[in-house]
Write a structure and sequence with these properties.
The complex is a heterodimer of chains A (204) and B (342).
Chain A (H helix, E strand, L loop, with lengths): L1 H13 L5 H6 L10 H19 L4 H54 L3 H32 L36 E4 L3 H10 L4
Helix pairs in contact in A: 1-3, 1-4, 4-5
Chain B lengths: L2 H10 L5 E5 L3 E7 L5 E7 L2 E5 L2 H9 L4 E4 L2 E5 L1 H10 L7 E2 L2 E2 L7 H12 L8 E6 L10 H14 L3 E6 H9 L7 E6 L4 E7 L2 E8 L3 H12 L3 H9 L10 H27 L10 E6 L8 H11 L6 E6 L6 H14 L1
Parallel strand pairs in B: 1-9, 9-10, 11-14, 14-15
Antiparallel strand pairs in B: 1-2, 2-3, 4-6, 5-6, 7-8, 11-12, 12-13
Helix pairs in contact in B: 6-11, 7-8, 7-9, 9-10
The chains are: A mainly alpha (204), B alpha/beta (342).
Amino acid sequence: MESVNDVKQALSARSRTATLDELRNEGRKRVRLIRAEHVASMITEAVNAAVEQSGLVDPEEVKKLVDKSRQEFRSILREREQEAQETNEAQEQLEARDREIAELKKRLEQMSGGKAGASVPVSGDLSAVLAKIEGSINDRLEKIGKKMGVSAAVESDTPVDFSGLFKEADKKLESNMENIEVKKTEGGGIAANLARLKKLKGGS
Amino acid sequence: MTKQDKKEHTETQVALGKGLDVGTANFAAAVQNEDGGITVTVERNAFLDIPSDVYSKNMLVKLKVPYVVHNNRLVVIGEAAFELANVFGRETRRPMRDGLISPNEQDALPMMKMIITKILGEPRVSGENCYFCVPAPSLDVDNNVDYHRGLFESVINKMGYRAHAVNEAHAVVFAELAEQDFTGIGLSFGGGMANACICYKSIPCLSFSVARGGDWIDKNVANVLGCPRSKATHIKERGIDIRDPKSREEEAVAIYYRSLINYVLQNIKTRFESGQNMPSFTTPIDIACAGGTSLVGGFIEVFRDEFAKIDFPLPVGRIFRSEEALTAVAKGCLVAAAIGES
């Protein structure tokens, strides 16, 4: 009954847990229940019935197809679970850092309310600690981002200037080009093209 | 633009902005003229070096053949280089390959700059817009379009213009599909590449290039016939009709033309089918072909033949070749430049 377990896991991954009090607060007095085994059984029945009715697939092929689909399903499920785990870990790390920051802020407030002479050096230490924590959080977020395929790198808007590579082209060379006539041809105007383009762009 | 510049421009009454087609085979610069039309200056992007001596130099001067003295050699530039190469059975040197600056011809840059300066002329006002074409990233080769664009941006900016890059096939749409509100497919069959751009109301939805063009045809024709590539180019450009080849040489050209067209069409089809967020065209769209490689006789008929063989994923209306196929990209760049100036 691996399929039942699969369905249970899928339902668990894609559903939320709510207490009876929470449901009551949402205005629900009665809820309808269904067992995961029944859902799995209904899916299997529906798929088998559809395949049999179609008459297009050999029963042996159906079995292979079902096995392959099951493998695929488990693979996707594993991926989703791993992603969810990574996200949870990241969330936990962030919450831990938030707690540390809150604790340190609290200590800072307590100290600044105490001896005035001692507050200056302690405050300086604390700023350094806060900066360190902030740096640590940023590093971790960047690592998580990289894992999830999100890069923190940004492209500059400034185009690459290649002009340094072409200094050779600026040399003055001996030539008779100035005295040579180049071939010229006359063509139809572009007024109509410009008028259409301006109209498209909302101009007059 | 300064007030003085604007005043001078008003006095001349010629719209500002210039378009430059930076092609593997040809450079073309387009500018609006006083008659309301456009003037396009074209020069071949090729050169040939010959030993430098007084006699040869005098001959070049007398014959008005453009040359540059570079590294103690005489370098003949442009169309004349191509003609001389054919006479002497030599290959021209080509600063660009597959639509981009060639890594094998780094020292060709001064010559290329000279050609651009000659055909583009001085800017009429400081910082006049010059839109130049760049190819789209290729499907079949790993190329560095950024370096290519940076190089020409640098050269054009140094001349006093404000350089802007525009996709080559997008320029074809600007030049040829105005009546269709710039909706359709623009194809530029150049020397080094074929570029494609599908636009909806002037906005490019999909653009790409394949590293096959006129040079690819020349290379293959030269291989099967056992002749220099410039000879193959000459055969291709002497006015043949690829629907009715008259010799073995013309037959070779026709075969490779058909193959090139089929390759481009198949790639458009595949790219469009696999593209995400593509617009769905409810009415048939037009296909405009341009570029020097499309100038050969029978091109558009063979294109239609090949198109009919494939199950194209879009409703297509008219398939046509630009009346000014060689200069359409430059014209499209000029449209972009003029809009940029307005």
